[in-house]
Amino acid sequence: MYQLLNDLSIVEVSSFVASPTAGLYCAQMGAEVIRVDHVAGGLDYDRFMLTEEGRSLSWENLNRAKKSVALDLRSGEGRELCAQLAGQTGQCITNLPERSFLGHAAMQAHRPDNRTDMISVRIMGWHDGRQAMDFTVNAASGYPLMGGPEDWDPDTAPPVNQILPAWDFITGAYCAFALMAALRHRDATGEGSELRVPLGDVAIGTVANSGMMAEMLYRGGDRERLGNAIWGAFGRDFRSKDGVRFMVAALTAKQWAGLVEAFNLGEAIGSLEKELGVDFSAGDEPRFTHRHRLFDLFQNVASGLKYAKLEKRMAAAGTTFEKYRTAHEAAQDPQLVGDNPLFGPSPANPSGFGYPAPRSFANIPEREAGDPAPAPYLGQHSEEVLAERLGLGSGSIGDLIDRGIVRTSDKNNR
Amino acid sequence: MYQLLNDLSIVEVSSFVASPTAGLYCAQMGAEVIRVDHVAGGLDYDRFMLTEEGRSLSWENLNRAKKSVALDLRSGEGRELCAQLAGQTGQCITNLPERSFLGHAAMQAHRPDNRTDMISVRIMGWHDGRQAMDFTVNAASGYPLMGGPEDWDPDTAPPVNQILPAWDFITGAYCAFALMAALRHRDATGEGSELRVPLGDVAIGTVANSGMMAEMLYRGGDRERLGNAIWGAFGRDFRSKDGVRFMVAALTAKQWAGLVEAFNLGEAIGSLEKELGVDFSAGDEPRFTHRHRLFDLFQNVASGLKYAKLEKRMAAAGTTFEKYRTAHEAAQDPQLVGDNPLFGPSPANPSGFGYPAPRSFANIPEREAGDPAPAPYLGQHSEEVLAERLGLGSGSIGDLIDRGIVRTSDKNNR
To answer: How many Å from the N-terminal Cα to the C-terminal Cα in chain A?
Structure first.
């Protein structure tokens, strides 16, 4: 972990993917991130996949490098401790509703010296309070009805859901940014901020930011189904003689020239240009417009060559391409994982299972990257955090534990 | 635009989606973001869709609320001006290679008073320098080979590319966060940072963070194809009697209870529980394991009811659901756009076309949101920025314009 944020403590009261991701990115940059959960674990504590011993591989990756405090969040006393922790710390990421025990004002009330400088980042469903999750906002976005093979009948084609919970991950990264922006503003002015980030707004807002909303309104209808082709440029999947599937993209003049060279198609494309009266090196437009003619030429060459040969030629010509991997293949790929400095040695994960652990996406050549840290056991830091943050003595903490308001590490009782 | 970052200026030398997005998020929070492009426009200046007059709807959305400086970036003089602008400003987002005129050291060399506090965020392809773009890193991630209908033969099923360039958008948001983290560190220590964020690392790192990499290694193979079902929980698309497709999800006990109530399936599910010897309210596991039996029950009810009726019942029962929209339907949906405070009135876009414009994803109830600003014309702020940032007089700027090193607004010559 880099130590860019080592002066920062954040309380995270969260579950599922988006809010834990926001905390994860901060933790991987050196922040102290204290995840507070219900004593039995949050709603995501048993998220698939589980090991035979019942440890969630999802949870232990999304909560890497954090501390864990376990409180009885169904009791008034546990809830009060949680709000106190957030308020005393001063910055909180949560996906609890505003109308819960963790509303902004409740945290604000616990700021020391009556300061009004609390910063909260709250992930919501839809802006109007309706529930949502990644798959439901995605249904509204328009993307699932654009996916799938090009030859599907538009009138009967089913939606194709994304497997990647992309809206969760965009929202998580955005919330980490929004928290930092609010901290910067507080450093300059002393003012706190209450930030609300609806998952649904990230989705429909991205539809707008990408230009797709303007496009649909401008054309007055939907875009044609493109299958695996890239919209407005040259790119698609191809298949080699030996059945290897790979993606190819050419968005710039240089990429296009390299691709034509790798496939040795200079002459054939010259003829096609003459036939159609276009210049394919002039930009995206002719390559996209006549993509089916071009796809045929490229697939024809691919069908005659083994992937190893094609790969060599594409690499030599500076083509932008990539072989499709299954997820299991990707996990074992030396280029992606084994030889990639993004990954460090496996720390002692709660599951006891060892595997490559990622550092922060950002690497900083001049700084020490450090080794990845494991996720905590649930409640592992309850005593430490309550003592440090709230100044509770060992007697008070012992009493809270005895009464079930606080729980300590579940290392041996899972 | 909120004014959380109104003390911050950022130079952005970028193209396509990821790097412009990082600048966009900062601009929507009030930062001055100066996008510097080649005089003819960056590689993305003509990205689809184009209006009849040749204005890119993609570009004008991804570059909203920024300033534009146009320099001849093929000339030594233009490149020097660009590096000077970045260095004098102190923070830069770029997707140019490190071995270009905009390497970190080149910007650092222009810091005032020989300060060594430059912050650069550089978006790369793969960590090892290989070229990549959203669709190619996605091919490597494993997701495209998991997508598509459940009944496809795993041995012959084609990959299904995501239409959403999710890796670009995650990378953009992450880079905005990374920039803020580095600024915070500089505020505390005076030290600069050189951050490199490979698009490929965001992809394979997300595969790891999500727990999917650990899952595949733990199971020693690939996950079964799920079609539109949610992994490890209850959720899928259904179709009403009148042909409306909608997504339903139940991840919590409350969501499950609401869903069963909305579909009036208490009795049938009770019988199924007895038959299978399971308790579906106990958690994700039984609901996921027996999903096909459950899907049949729910689809059977859906097939007998019109969507309007189903929707009413699901809303009343607090179910998490959403109707699929096409992108054109989404763009015109009052709930998503028209009545959503995320969107403001259309500013005067370079295209001349008017449509709803998004604010920042984060809303801050106590602050003034302001109206969305338009993207600039290419070169619109060349003179202003060169005068303010580099202290150039009108004579020097006039000379640079005369010699084609600097270009002013392309409002009337596009």
So the answer is: 28
